[in-house]
Specification:
mainly alpha; 10 helices; 180 residues
């Protein structure tokens, strides 16, 4: 509890201590998972360098922003049991782009360039180039590796939260955070 509370103070600037052991253990596990994830090289940064609106720092900042806003949202709504899931859901909601980079390093560049030059929606361009969207790639991956159901649902319904049949509060929080 002490370690998790110290992390909370440092990372979230929240001086209140964690009192729920489940949240504390989840928080420590989340920090360890994030540390391991940062050490993995998934795709070369140069494949994500597409100025002016897309780069690795921009992507990571967006993912972290969605995670923090989703977490803040569930806290504000007093859905404390969803706090850690909201943060992880925010980090995982756009996993498909990383999978695309791993499968086809130049594919993301081609898709973004085509969508920009032709002023067409990104999902339509992904469908044209890949036969599916990066969201569908992420969903297939999440199901294959047996990712926890709440995160699969976030990936599945983040763009249309009103269609969610399970984990509605979590999906809505991540979707709202993404739109903000």
């Amino acid at each position: 509890l002490v370690s998790a509370s110290q992390l909370r103070r440092l990372e979230d600037f929240d001086p209140s201590p964690l009192e729920d052991p489940r949240l504390a253990v989840g928080r420590l596990g989340e920090v360890r998972l994030a540390t391991i994830a940062r050490s993995l090289v998934v795709a070369e940064e140069r494949y994500m360098n597409l100025p002016p609106h897309f780069s690795w720092p921009d992507y990571w900042l967006f993912q972290m922003g969605v995670a923090r806003i989703a977490r803040f949202t569930v806290n504000y709504l007093e859905l404390y049991n969803l706090e850690l899931q909201a943060r992880m859901g925010g980090l995982l909601h756009d996993l498909g782009r990383l999978i695309l980079l791993q499968l086809h390093p130049h594919g993301l560049q081609a898709i973004l360039t085509y969508a920009r030059e032709n002023r067409v929606p990104l999902a339509g361009t992904e469908q044209l180039f890949l036969g599916c969207t990066t969201q569908e790639l992420a969903l297939r991956f999440a199901e294959k590796v047996k990712l926890a159901e709440p995160f699969v649902d976030v990936i599945r319904w983040v763009n249309q939260p009103e269609a969610a049949t399970r984990h509605r509060e979590l999906v809505a929080a991540v979707s709202l955070a993404r739109r903000l």
